[in-house]
Amino acid sequence: MQLGYVGLGNMGAALARRLLRKDKMRVYDLRPETMARLADQGGIASQNPKALAAQSDLVMTCLPTSKEVQQVIFGSDGLASGLKKGAVIADMTTGDPNATREMAKELAKSGITLIDAPVSGGPHGADAGTIAIMVGAPADVYARVQPVFEAISPNIFHCGDVGTGHTMKLVNNVVAASVRMATFEAVTMGIKNGLTLETCARVLAKGSARSYTTEITLPKFVKGELKTNFTLGLMHKDVRLATELGVASASPMPVCNLVREIFQIAVNDQGADADVNTLIRLHERQSKVEFAPKG
């Protein structure tokens, strides 16, 4: 199976590197220097998505939002104009399930299959081969792509038909965002009342409140590390998509809607491109206490 990869940001590049450990692969990104960095590992730079698609049976995409995915597929020199009948696009973006389903219906008219396969675990998880892959696809298509995804990680989950992978990712990210916000808020209160960051990090990592935030983020704070390579704007986008899906399906999400609004405040305060962990600045400022690194 000939592979192609479009979108080589922090996450996409990490996923592509895992695939390139097994075989050569065509790659495309708007930044030529990004493609060039993968050349030594077997990445073959493509002129545009159409050219990449013409030489690929399976194309994976990892882009900021479903809007960019739509542009890459249906735009000028897009994937749809180069793919052959029977080809598959696997969208690894954290996308909108309903937008994905609509794109899949349109592509099906040309004999092209679109499935969703978002991931969770960050670039470090992709590099380590431990990342979770959530796949929304018909069973026969899932069977075709599973061996490819196994080159990335053994943690592959078939969530159902097209759109369910993106739905699962939104469930994951809105939970992660909510836990991060509650943890930052509570630890701020604890530090203002005599606890140390080190104590909070050590105890929370072993208690019933343990989470990614307590096991990974807080220990990084202790070491003076703030950055995660994930932005406030992207987290807000993910929470917004989850709450919009709740509205569309008449599923009340009062807590998650509050989380969305707090992330909007953080975006307005710090900027959409600021690291997601700068959320802590809101809590520090309101409580008049400092404990997170400044970098």
Describe it.
This protein folds into two domains: 160 residues, 3-Layer(aba) Sandwich (Rossmann fold); 120 residues, N-(1-d-carboxylethyl)-l-norvaline Dehydrogenase, domain 2 (Orthogonal Bundle), CATH 1.10.1040. 52% of the residues lie in helices and 12% in strands. It has a six-stranded parallel beta sheet with strand order 3-2-1-4-5-6. The longest helix has 29 residues.
What number of domains?
2
The helical percent reads 40-55%
Largest sheet, strands/sense/barrel: 6 strands, parallel
Can you count the helices?
Answer: 13
Give a topology summary:
Layout: E1 3-6, H1 10-20, E2 25-28, H2 32-37, E3 43-45, H3 49-54, E4 58-61, H4 66-74, E5 88-91, H5 97-108, E6 113-116, E7 119-120, H6 122-128, E8 132-136, H7 139-149, E9 156-160, H8 164-192, H9 197-204, H10 212-222, H11 232-248, H12 254-270, H13 280-287
Parallel strand pairs: 1-2, 1-4, 2-3, 4-5, 5-6, 8-9
Antiparallel strand pairs: 7-8
